[in-house]
Amino acid sequence: MDAIQMTIDGKQVTGKKGQTILEVALDNNIDIPYLCYHPRISKTGACRICMVRVNEAALKTSCTEPASNGMIIDTDDDEIRELRRSILGMLLAEGDHNCLYCESNGECELQRLCNRYEVPMPAGDMPTRQRAVDTVSSKGLRRNENRCILCGRCVKACGEIQMNSVWNFTGRGSSTALTSDMFAQLGDSSCVMCGACVQCCPTGALSFQTVLGRGQAWELKKETSVCIYCGVGCQIDFYTNKEGKLVKALGNADGPNEGHLCVKGRFGFDFVQSGKRLTKPLIKKNGAFEEASWDEALDLVASRLSDIKSKSGPDSIMAFSSAKCTNEENYLMQKFMRAVIGTNNVDHCARL
Amino acid sequence: MTNSIREIPVSEAYLIIGSNTTENHPVIGSMIKREVIRNNKKLVVVDPRRIEMAKYADVYLQIKPGTNVAILNGLAHVALKENLYDREYVESRCEAFEEYRKVVEKYTPEHVASICGIDDPSLIVKAARILAGAKPMALYYCMGITQFKSGVNGVKSCANLQMLLGNIGVMGGGVNPLRGQNNVQGACDMGALNAVYPAYQPIGTEDNKNKFMNAWKVGFELSMKPGLTIVESLNAAIAGDLKALYVFGENPVMSDPNQHHVIEALEKLDFLVVQDIVLTETAQYADVVLPGFAFLEKEGTVSNTERRVQMMHRVVAPAGDSRDDWLILTQLANRMGASWDYTCPKDIFEEIRTVTPSYAGITYERLENNELLQWPCPNESHPGTQFLHREKFSRGLGLMTAIEYTPPAEDVDPEYPVILTTGRVLEHFHTGTMSRNSRILDETVPEGFVEMNPNDASNYNVCDGDLVAVSTRRGSIRVKARVTGRPKPNVVFVPFHFAEAAANKLTIDALDPTCKIPEFKVCACKIERVAM
Amino acid sequence: MKQETINKTIEKFGNSSEHLMLILRDLEVGSGKNVLDVQTLRSVAELMNIPESAVAGFVGFYTMFKTEPRAKFVIRVCKSGPCHVMGATTVFDAVQKHLGIGIGEATKDGMFYLEKCECLGVCSVAPAMMINYDIHGNLTPKKIASILNSYRKKRPSLLESCGDEVAGKACIIDEPRQTKRLIADIGKIDPLKIESYLATGGYESLKKSLATEPGKIIDAVKDSGLRGRGGAGFPAGMKWTFVGKGPVQKYVICNADEGEPGTFKDRILMEENPHLLIEGMAICGRAIGATLGYIYIRGEYRRSIERLQKAISQARDKGILGKNIFGSGFDFDIYIKEGGGAYVCGEETSLINSMEGKRGYPRFKPPFPGGAGFNNLPSNVNNVETLMSVPMIIEKGADWYKSVGPLNCSGTKLYCLSGQLNRTGLVELPMGATLKEIINVYGKGMPKGRKFKFAQVGGSAGGILGKDLMDLPLDIDQPMKKGVTLGSGVVLVCDESTCAVDFLLQILSFFEHESCGQCVPCRVGTAHLHHISKKFASRTAVPGDIDLLLEKATVMKKASLCALGQSPIMPITTMLKYFRKEFLAHCDPNHKCPQCDRSLARYYAGRGH
After folding, report:
1. CATH class given for the domain over B5-178
2. In this structure, which of A79, A107, A125, A246 has its CB flanked by the most CB atoms within 10 Å?
């Protein structure tokens, strides 16, 4: 791999051939702000926030400009700051960016940048257009286009990650809007609710149905686990709120899924906290289940299995192990059957 | 999978057979779609239903359910006849080629087309040329290959084709079964199977018996007699030979073929223990129900379809008085005379490493550092194995197997004139224990259905949304009809997630003679419209 | 629409998204109501195996398409600069009065539907309108009535039947003092007959090129000093050297998306001498090693499209296009792509996206089209006038070409005269003609003895020139030094009766309408500029709004992705340089300005178009 030496903000850094200035900067922990760029989709170059000064001369969008040897990059100066402030101000003026009830409050990339550049709420009377609000048609996704900055990440997430191309822009110029297939409402479209678009959305324009009302972004706790459904083994970052309730699931980029999920991984987690969960051991007495203590239940199972083993032999006992349980648990189950009961009668649903 | 998910971009072509990838393994489905749509990779899809993947295929072969062996032999036939196969690979790395060739010779495109119900035999030729012409080519399959009386033969036929085309042991190639459950790979690796110890060490050898007796400090002789498989055990229960059953995180009433038969077996048992997270259809028949942990409440490792071992972490506090599954098993074992002293899953994993050579190099520490580890990983400095059979097969030479097509157990007849096939839908999983208790998933697809071709619909006077009875010799369910161009004419599809319209009331419990997999994918049924 | 019709149409043009524009245009005309309904579009998507959203996004981008039923005939009245100055509001009045409909409405009988549109490319006969695809100019209320009546018995068709006044020949100023090179043969040759072109020595330069080393052809073009005539003025020969090498398909793309308001030169050239373009493209193909050429013509130019199509098929019949042309072993063929009503597609990367059947978003550069253009393959994009200049350079040599025009801007330039002049039309003069000469000699001065107020040179993206710049040589470099530009050669002259505020409003509404919306500064900036200019026109502005215009346009200049967003700064600064007082006067709520009132009432009532 060809290495590139360049200077960013006076610091000598190394990049790889084929990288853009922004990619080199990010790899070197230099924080160039951006909104339309996302590492998992192709470049757009449209938000213009990531403009930097190249070789002490022209301003270029760092997300699209190829890095080359010997480049001197300034990521910040008075003119660049002023431009970023102006562009962010334009975005604020274009939409309805009231953070109060926004699902993304606290993790919104637009909010973060407006804070960083101290952009005031736009004064004056610039026109805003009421845009589509579609929060109920889809069971999984909410959309409020008044918060949309038309960065195009969702369009590309659907078209380049999920490969369904449900989203696209329609209209033109200041009338540009999202369309889902040919429908105004997402619920009418062929959307499979993988949620890739929401995961990429930098604002609260797209959000999950599970989020609003379940705590603020900064109160949520994140823990990584592996999806329980099919065998792909997607790594998922699960978020829980202060009450310990599950709020949302985001694909983790380090897993085999490279950050992507399907509708089951995305939304199929609330069974864990459903009211249908068993919370106490049950023993059937006279044809009906009664709650029991653990000691009672375990003693009963142990004594019944021991009885049957001594009466009918170990091969009269069978266990179905589980492809939904961990390696450790499966190992223990087969060990239990082989080394405690004394039979090879153990199987699981590999064939089902 | 012999190969890895991250090799998908390396492949030049894909053969997807018996896998509705975009619904059942959607993340992998998207990755393959991406290559086909954006990078113009070649794709051949073989499936009785015109699944989404068929839309992107260069050739789509709509075969009759149960004819996989024939179509795979047919593809091989063309590659052989047109000399498109990898002669050097076959000569240097495989054996028994002549026997294979002789059988395959009979499978001309015309012959195969008539078995598989394909109108245009030239499509088979076209598909074979595409697959043989692109290297590396990766074969992906799923239960549409395995869930037949001839399941093992289907798998072997897949391996045959990939050996013939020189695609095994090659980056971006391989025979890649897509595992249907998040740890089906690991459960197999751990020896939760009737005839093997962990890492597929056969129970029938003295060496292995002694090894495990020592490792487990067992005071008696470990059994060398093969155990029962799931479907066999149900038969044994009905016969009165099996007295007790411990069901751990499974739901055979929903997942096993011929539901009526399953229930009969469970009722016959002296003692049934079910350990699960909700009161499943199966748990209703239990004598004792033990509440275990759901996946987000537990810690441990799971192994995915590409043999990658990954850590699960506790995300939420356990529900009520439910208990960690490893702890339940430990406490039970100790009540029955064992003296297990595990204090956490890591203790168990350390023991696994000592008896499972392919896992020996994998540690919690390495996994927590997010190292990408795929077994075999024999020692702690080993990087894991991205793809299998590099340079040589595990057994030395790749064994090609001459396999003849055999028809499914149950053919259509005037009384049951339609082929029934079963499977999953995107929004649900298996018996629905998890997905049907997840609000958004259940609301999105709240009920079962039967998918039928417009031709069949008009034959049976059925419109989209009508209630129909689907019946087989084993049972009958009522579901709404979904009239779509997806299934082949005279083939209907019913998903098996829905207890109120359980597909497995209908399915047949015919088994593959070798691996005992049930023939979920094909049986004969009839369709009748019923008044709402 | 019937599935069968849709299927046939797709078959006719080819089942690939690059033909989407032609397929949809055909279907829309065939609908009889100028509509592409959702059901039709869904069928198209399904049959062509492209995402529904891609079709929806495409249709939504190009203003000529609509998904709601319109009428048998769509009347599009031009409101761009020249027509605006020449009385577009009276055209709207006349149409509305005659048919009893407003903008965005259809007559009850389903016969007519009224829209506003941007430049139709017949600016010398402004005001103009287009009925379906027929363009009519020199409109008066009486003429409008008779034109509309004549349509009542017509059937919608893509075959043009424009008014005689818009014919190319009729739009050339008859004045002997010109230096006729590009237009020398117009009038002498029959554009419908290849024999006629061949008789004047046509295709001899191509023959000569086929016997010349490609490098030498490029050298000749470089030596000639030919610079791009589309507006940017980039040296053509140098651009040709940027085209990727190696054994891959390369393309010659002719940019015939002449959308800059006030420009009509390319239309005249294509209509009157189509073979000259074919010859120029083939020579370019030979020079850069491209075997395929595409002409991207705006959809409004039906006559150009028809004549070029005819010329291409004649050339193919003669073996001048196709395989092994003139027996040289070199293959070259040309296909036509059409636009759908999007000014931004004149930007070369937008044009390429549009050719591929996509929304006409400009691409970021690098990569440049020379490296990754159409289908991501090396492509050279030149304007019509540029490519048509090539054969004469090959024929007569670089030195001859350089013999007119200034040192760095050699050759002749086609100037498009429009607005309040006694004579309007196309003239060909050596590069660097002055406004004084153009107005007095070729435009015959101002009508009715009115006084010159300003000229807009270079179109909407160009600047405003006042009396002080009457002697400025209008070549490529000199205007830059004064903060203006020659652009595509528009000279729109306005007399004292034109209101500066009203004129700028018209320009800024154009930019909002034409912004593609991809990059933030342009999408939001153009909307804001239009809004602020409307405040001046409605006398609700405050003096500080002048600074606001400048501030926003400056951000756009610095940060926009393509030239469209970088442009408004020029008309704003130059207009304010001369007429700041007029803008300040409009801040007074009691200021009288009937022109602003009329514009606002006629076609700026809503936001945008």
Report:
1. alpha beta
2. A246
Burial B282-298 (b: 16+ CB within 10 A, else e): bbebbbbbbbbbbbbbb
Q: Chain B closest CA to A74's CA: distance in Å?
A: 35
- Do C229 and C98 belong to one domain? no
Domain co-membership, C87 together with C51: no
Which residues 167-196 of B have a C-beta within 8 angstroms of A?
178-195
Neighbours of chain B (3+ CB pairs under 8 A): A
Residue C189 in any domain: the answer is no
Single-letter amino acid, residue A134 = D
Classify C427 as helix, strand or coil: strand
Residues 146-175 of A with CB under 8 A from C: 149-150, 152, 159, 164-175
Residue contact A280–B291, C-beta within 8 A: yes
What pLDDT, on a 0 to 100 scale, did the predictor assign at position C609?
Answer: 42
On the question of pLDDT at C516 being above 90, the answer is: yes
| Residues B266, B253: Cα–Cα separation, whole Å | 9
Which CATH code of 2.60.40.10, 3.40.630.10, 2.40.40.20, 3.10.450.60 fits the domain covering B418-529?
A: 2.40.40.20
Note whether A154 and A206 are within 8 A (CB): yes
- Asked if C337 and C458 sit in the same domain, the reply is no
Helix (H) or strand (E) holding C240: helix C236-241
Number of domains chain C is built from: 5
B249: which 2 tokens? Answer: 């995180």
Same domain, residue pair C160 and C207: no
* Cβ within 8 Å, pair B194-A349: no
**Which helix (H) or strand (E) segment is C578 a member of?**
helix C569-585
The residue of chain A nearest to residue C361, with distances taken between CA atoms, is: A172
Residue B451 has pLDDT above 90, yes or no: yes
Pair (C144, C199) in one structural domain? no
| Banded model confidence at residue C605, pLDDT cuts 50, 70, 90 | low
Cα gap C380→C363, rounded to integer Å: 15
Q: Kindly provide the ipTM of the predicted complex, given to two decimals.
A: 0.94
Q: Which stretches within B410-531 are classed as H helix? A: 439-444, 454-459
Q: How far is A343 from chain C (nearest CA, A)?
A: 57
Q: Are residues C211 and C295 in the same domain?
A: yes
The architecture of the domain spanning A128-273 is: 2-Layer Sandwich (3.30)
Are A170 and C519 in contact (CB < 8 Å)?
no
Which residue type does C41 have?
Answer: L
Size of interface A-B (CB pairs under 8 A): 449
Distances (CA, A) of C189 to B390, C192, C201, C273, C317: 73, 9, 11, 8, 19
At C584, which CATH number? 1.20.1440.230
Search chain C and give the residue with CA nearest A163. C51
Put simply, whether A348 touches B (Cβ < 8 Å) is: yes
CATH of the domain at C465: 3.10.20.600
Inter-CA distances, C408 with C218, C223, C305, C479, Å: 17, 11, 33, 13
Same CATH topology for B5-178 and B184-368: the answer is no
Work out whether the CA dihedral C124, C196, C339, C38 comes out positive or negative.
Answer: positive
Nearest CA in chain C to A83: C555
Q: How far apart are CA B323 and CA C114, in angstroms?
A: 73
Chain B segment 357-386 residues within 8 A of A by beta carbon are: 370
Q: What is the pLDDT of residue C1?
A: 77
Which residues constitute the domain of residue C105?
A: 73-166
- pLDDT score, position C602: 83
First to last CA, chain A: 46
Architecture of domain B184-368: 3-Layer(aba) Sandwich (3.40)
**Class of domain A3-76 (CATH, top level):** alpha beta
The per-residue pLDDT for range B90-112, each reduced to its tens digit, is 999 999 999 999 999 999 999 99
